[in-house]
Amino acid sequence: MKNTLSLKARIYHYSLLFFVFLFMASPIAATLLYSLSTSWGVSVLPDGLTLKWYAELFRDMRFLASLLRSFIVCFGAIF
After folding, report:
1. What angle do CA 55, 31, 68 make, to 5 degrees?
2. For the chain, what percentages of helix, strand and coil (3-state, to nearest 5) are there?
3. Tens of pLDDT, residues 34-69
């Protein structure tokens, strides 16, 4: 199929696609930033970053069991 869109129309479509992607990805990025923060004061950004919460999460046996069950269901649905 031949590309019949003008340059102006292509720029419009790609910029609209970019802003929709940015709108949909921003809550995920904000949640990730919040999960890595040590504490959050009155500023826009956190006071510090840490992986302590993730290390604690992967030491919890209930989480590991549920993660394993999730992978079993996922791979069971694929194959």
Report:
1. 45
2. 70, 5, 30
3. 889 988 788 888 888 899 989 999 999 999 999 999
